[in-house]
Write a structure and sequence with these properties.
The chain is mainly alpha-helical and 104 residues long. It has five helices and no strands. The protein has one domain. The longest helix is centred in the N-terminal third of the chain and has 22 residues.
């Protein structure tokens, strides 16, 4: 039942990525889904803002989707994708992925 409500999904996603062994796998899997989608969208000519908005829905984790949303908002305001709030987050793998994609 906890996974069916919005607060329940947030809680379950947060717990799942913090599990000792499976959490790392879940995080990498979510980031891989996002980067595959982002790469495909960018390769087909979609703008970075639209690609981030679409890609955030494919990652499968609320917390990662929120981090991607922050990157989207920063780019929309004209900032570098890896500066400010996002650089201080603990999603280092996601920061590197967005930095690589954005500077490509």
């Amino acid at each position: 039942m906890a996974g069916k409500t919005r607060p329940g999904v947030r809680c379950m996603d947060g717990l799942f990525i913090r599990l000792p062994v499976l959490g790392d796998l879940a995080l990498k899997s979510a980031v891989a889904r996002f980067t595959r989608t982002l790469g495909s969208l960018l390769a087909s000519g979609v703008s970075i803002l639209e690609a981030l908005a679409i890609g955030r829905n494919t990652c499968g984790n609320v917390h990662i989707a929120e981090a991607i949303g922050h990157v989207h908002d920063q780019i929309k305001q004209g900032a570098n994708a890896t500066s400010g709030y996002f650089n201080n987050s603990d999603n280092g793998i996601l920061v590197g992925t967005v930095r690589l994609t954005y500077n490509f």
